Amino acid sequence: MAEKQTTVAVTGVGALIGQGIARSLHPGGRARIVGVDRRITPFSRTFCDAVEQKPAVDETSPAYLDFWRELVEQHGVELILPGLSVDMDFFNGNRAAFRDMGVKIALNSETLISLCADKYDFQAAYGAAGFPVIPSARPESWEAALSGLGPAPLLLKPRRGEGSAGIVRLSDAEDFAYWTRRNGDNWLIQTIVGADADEYTVGIYGLGDGAYVGPIIMRRRLTRSGHTGEAEVLDHPVIAELTGRIAHRFQPVGPTNLQFRIEGDTPYLLEINPRFSSSCSLRAAFGFVEAEMCIDHLIEGRMPDQPVIRHGFAHRYNEDFIGEHS
Predict the structure, then answer these.
(1) pLDDT in the model for residue 196
(2) According to the model, what pLDDT value does residue 15 have?
């Protein structure tokens, strides 16, 4: 007997994360995939059973919610997997409306989404919980930054943002003045901990009570765009232990990404991304398929199985997609 398929809407299929989510749900497998994006490309059509283009309206418009009502009804969508942060924010703000539609959404807890929206506030909450925290501040001057955080270079990053976008190294007072002025109030400054070669991305699937599936741990190198370009899947008992304590404290739900740097023997948490990550396709390739875990948990109502995770290396590269007019 053929396995019952769940109709799943995946957003952002024109971008890296959405494509990774959709491609991890194998064609003819457990899901019928409806791809959603502002721009539907010929490439994105190749891994979707159907596609729907978002209307050119703001996500806060009632017309945008109407678009989703019609999409859910037309395709019989049972589960939505957001592939973009803007989509996560939209669904998070409209949970009640989608409950009324009878559709499940892979969303983290409202508490964790809110807390992680501001990196400065999150670092304060993380440190207050007793975890080793990266020294962070919003100093009024370069001299105050050096006094509070130590010698240059220091790291400036947006308080609100994703990936490594907008992160710069500050070497002197001129850098400080330029970048703080350019970012308005959207910045914090941190001490640089660890080295580029000691950065890790960790995936877990949270169950909402501190329990979780995983972790899968990757040592990574970033591309210029801030996404993982190279990764090595390995065991790291110290990071695994700290991940468990973080999950117990913050109780994530669903796909959750944690990023660490190692300084000496201590892992420091850079941030939690309470959503699918740009590494989801790499994780799936090594046996950690978060999209299928969402079906297990949210549709079938059972705890996902602990996957057998393979160790190895991954390297991302660009590839041409060639199609012909019919």
Answers:
(1) 85
(2) 92
Sheet strands side by side (includes 168-170)? 136-137, 188-191, 154-157, 168-170
CATH of residue 256:
3.30.470.20
Q: Pick out the chain residues at pLDDT < 50.
A: 1
Instruction: Write out the two tokens for 25.
Output: 């749900």
Assign 3-class secondary structure to the chain. CCCCCEEEEEECCCCHHHHHHHHHCCCCCCEEEEEEECCCCHHHHCCCCEEEECCCCCCCCHHHHHHHHHHHHHHCCCEEECCCHHHHHHHHHCHHHHHHHCCEECCCCHHHHHHHCCHHHHHHHHHHCCCCCCCEECCCCHHHHHHHHCCCCEEEECCCCCCCCCCEEECCHHHHHHHHHHCCCCCEEEECCCCHHHEEEEEEEEECCCCEEEEEEEEEEECCCCCEEEEEECCCHHHHHHHHHHHHHHCCEEEEEEEEEEECCEEEEEEEECCCCCCHHHHHHCCCCHHHHHHHHHHCCCCCCCCCCCCEEEECCCCCCCCCCC
Q: Are residues 184 and 221 in the same domain?
A: no
Q: Same domain, yes or no, for 200 and 308?
A: yes
102: alpha, beta or left? (left if phi > 0; alpha if psi -120 to 50): left
Final residue of a structural domain among 176, 191, 206: 191
Which of 160, 191, 222 marks a domain boundary?
191
- The neighbour count for residue 306, using CB atoms within 10 Å, is 11
pTM for this entry = 0.94
Same domain, 187 and 224: no
Q: What is the CATH number of the domain that holds 88?
A: 3.40.50.20
Determine, yes or no, domain membership for 122.
no
Task: Print the domain residue range for 172.
Answer: 135-191
Query: Residue 59: inside a domain, yes or no?
Result: yes
The predicted structure's pLDDT at residue 1: 41
For 50, list phi and psi in degrees, rounded to 5.
-155, 155
